[in-house]
Amino acid sequence: MNESRGTAIHVSGLTVAYGNNLALDNVRLDVEIGDYMGIIGPNGGGKSTLLKAVMGLTDIMSGEITIMGKSLREGRNLIGYVPQSTEFDRSFPIDVLEVVLTGMLPIGLKPFRRYSEEEIRQAHYLLGSVGIEHLARNHISALSGGEFQKMLIARALAAKPKILLLDEPTASVDASSRAQIYDLLDELNKEVTIILVTHDLLAISSRVRRLACLNNRLIYHGEPELNEDVVTNLYGCPVDLIAHGVPHRVLKEHGGEDGCSC
């Protein structure tokens, strides 16, 4: 990393509700500059809500979020966001290059804005950096799952972020594409802080450097290691830990801090 160490994202006392349903309950979490953090937890546990709160995309009941020491309003332009691919309509009439170019659009867009030659060149460069420049003029409906995810990563990078948030980037992709995406994230982490929401235990055991376990509240925050007690507290029942046949580490003894209830 070119920047000195410090706090990339600070979350304190974050509570979010949708109607009468509490999505996040008093979550506090610090992500350091240069971190590669994985967030795991059950469906409905608040993982996507946490990312959206950090992006300023959902209302919060209480709490504070700062980005690189700045307020959420001032700091959110430092973040690139890769949403779940299911949020996109693949029939929309747009090609791969155009999707990446939309990541360069400023807030307060003026009508009929034309992209500059430099922006088009940069979009081609980003597609090349994720390995799909040859697909630049393909319609998005023609992409495989892995290609689609790489396109979304290129789009997020178009804003030149300091922090990259990814929500299930390897869902519904084949094993080869999954490995390519993780290799790409490893490379990007040399320059960008990464927070990855995933159900992929292989990524947790072999890729990320920090782990947050979330089930509406923060169950654990620390080294990327799992044991039966943590998983039982996280999912509410014992779960067999299987990571594509790859052995994974177990948690050290811990307790009391970082919201741990184990």
Q: Could you please describe the fold and organization of this structure?
A:
The structure is a single chain. This protein has a 6-stranded mixed beta sheet, with helices on both faces. Strands 2-1-4-5 form a 4-stranded antiparallel beta sheet. By secondary structure, the protein is an alpha/beta fold. It has a domain at 7-87 and 161-235: Rossmann fold, CATH 3.40.50.300. The longest helix is centred in the C-terminal third of the chain and has 14 residues, at 175-188. The radius of gyration is 19 Å and the shape is globular. Helix 3 runs parallel beside helix 5 and helix 4 crosses helix 5 (145-157). The protein has helices spanning 47-54, 72-75, 96-102, 117-129, 145-157, 175-188, 201-206, 228-235, and strands at residues 7-18, 21-32, 36-40, 62-67, 70-71, 79-82, 163-167, 193-197, 210-215, 217-222. A hairpin with a 2-residue loop joins strand 4 and strand 5. The protein is built from 8 helices and 10 strands.
Protein traits:
alpha/beta; Rossmann fold; six-stranded mixed beta sheet
Structural category is: alpha/beta
Count the DSSP helices: 8
How many runs of DSSP E, i.e. beta strands? 10
In N-to-C order, the SSE pattern is EEEHEEHEHHHEHEHEEH
Beta-sheet strand percentage? 15-25%
N- and C-termini, Cα separation: 34 Å
Which stretches are low in confidence, meaning pLDDT under 50 for 5 or more residues running?
237-262
Q: Determine the CATH superfamily of the domain at 7-87 and 161-235.
A: P-loop containing nucleotide triphosphate hydrolases
Radius of gyration: 19 Å
* Secondary-structure arrangement, i.e. CATH architecture of the domain at 7-87 and 161-235: 3-Layer(aba) Sandwich
pLDDT average, as an integer?
85
Shape descriptor: globular
Helix content range: 25-40%
Strand order in the largest sheet: 6-7-8-3-9-10
Question: What is the CATH topology classification name of the domain at 7-87 and 161-235?
Answer: Rossmann fold
- Write down the CATH class of the domain at 7-87 and 161-235: Alpha Beta
Biggest β-sheet strands, sense, barrel: 6 strands, mixed
